[in-house]
Amino acid sequence: MAVRLSRPPRFDAWIALAGLAGGLLLWGFGLALRETDDPMVLLTGRWALLAPLVVISGCELLRRTAPRTALLIGTAALAADSVTQGSIATIVMYTDLAYAAVVYGPPATARRLPKITGVITVAAIVIPYAVWRVPEALLIGLVVAAVSFGPASTGLIVRNHRDAADAARLRAEQTALLAEMDRTQAVNQERARMARELHDVVANHLSAIAIHSTAALSLDEPRTSHEALTVIRENSVQGLSEMRRLIGILRDGSDEREPAAVPTLDGLTALVEGARANGLDAVLDSEPCSVPAPVELAAYRIVQESLTNALKHAEAGRVTVRLRRTDGTLDVRVTSPYGGRDAPRVPGSGAGLVGMRERAALLGGTFEAGPDEGPDGARGAVWTVRASLPVTDTDSVPGDA
After folding, report:
1. CATH number at residue 284
2. Which domain, by its residues, includes 66?
């Protein structure tokens, strides 16, 4: 299969042209490695060194696109140059080919070439000295090291630094990608949390406002209208207060005012009383207990949303809110009359059930909502909301029920 070589980079073309021009200039001035009266020079002639020079200059064009091929051909050209007058430019370009073969060649070449040239260098030092027994013989090994082992070792160092830089850049990109994914996930989670908070806060008060404003408009009784407007005003003020609390949470911290307290189980009494003021026959059946703040907030919001749904959808009758702490779990149960009404008093989007289910899931708990058996055993007589929120023992305090 024929190998199609890509076009050499412009920098490599300039290296080849500069090497060829430098070699021709040295040849023109008669500067070579051997004297003209050397027997080998007399045999090959002065023009013979131009052939290896041209060949190795062409190899420079392949130093990055085909580094191993360039090194093999360059080695043959260097061997041919050794039987001519010799050109310094040929040797210099060969060192560049050895360097490029390690830097741009395959990983196997980068690992093996410094070892091979190291062995050749040791042999070039030991063998001539063992044969001639003169210190000058060591210079052969030094020349071989400068031409082959030195460039190959330098190329290995450069390649290792380049690979390390690439690995560090890849790790940085992966870290940045993971950070962006974490940021996006955190933003989405915060949006979902704020959506639940806004829904739980606003829906409760606006549902009461809608119901009582409808009553005020449909009944032409000053007393009833006054009572409805009173409830509307109370829910408006409470809703505005809650909205201000949420807006304070969203601020960037420049506001020095203390944030409002997060709702807790102690506020359930006031929550149920507010539901009774809005027209629900609601009762609270709860034993004192201490649970972590996230569990308190989730339980409060689930009860709040359940009362809001009862206000919008439930039939006339008692709404019971029951909380119990048993075996490391806080059980929340809200029951309300169900069935018989053609349409709810206030339309709903279904986001409340989704929000309650999400709150329970975030704590590793369970959530169920649907028709249940009433006191008389009739299926669907009541609507029951059940939530089981895990509470670890480390989060509890002595005296929990």
Report:
1. 3.30.565.10
2. 10-174
